Amino acid sequence: MKKDWHSADIIAAIKKKGTTMAAVSREAGLCSSTLSNALTRKWPKGEKLIAEAIGVRAEIIWPTRYSGTKYP
């Protein structure tokens, strides 16, 4: 079974893309700290925003959250 990415790895991947969690959160119209909720608990909207910022599908970042879910 695959493991979810560590939150530090997610944050690092976002930084490598030239942005921050806070910036991605604000761009989505959220409070700057709101997006961090997706790092610790299932939140599909936040997971999608993070995945899009990194350029990787959410089920790759959090395989345990998406096990059994079919994606195109």
Helix content: 40-55%
Any guess at the CATH architecture? Answer: Orthogonal Bundle
N-to-C SSE string, H for helix and E for strand: HHHHH
The CATH homologous superfamily name equals: lambda repressor-like DNA-binding domains
- Return Rg in Å: 12 Å
* End-to-end separation: 20 Å
- Determine the number of helices (DSSP H or I, runs of at least 4 residues): 5
What is the CATH T-level topology?
A: 434 Repressor (Amino-terminal Domain)
CATH class: Mainly Alpha
How many beta-strand elements?
0
Proportion of residues in β-strands: under 5%
Q: How much is the average pLDDT?
A: 93
Task: Report low-confidence residues grouped into runs of 5 or more.
Answer: none
Task: Please give a handful of descriptors for the protein shown.
single chain, mainly alpha, 5 helices
Write the layout of secondary structure elements.
Elements: H1 7-16, H2 21-27, H3 37-40, H4 44-54, H5 58-61
Can you characterise this structure?
The chain is mainly α. It has a single domain, classed as Orthogonal Bundle (434 Repressor (Amino-terminal Domain)), CATH 1.10.260. The chain contains five helices and no strands. It has helices spanning 7-16, 21-27, 37-40, 44-54, 58-61. The longest helix is centred in the last third of the chain and has 11 residues, at 44-54. The relative contact order is 0.19.
Summarize the structure.
Helices cover 50% and strands 0% of the residues.
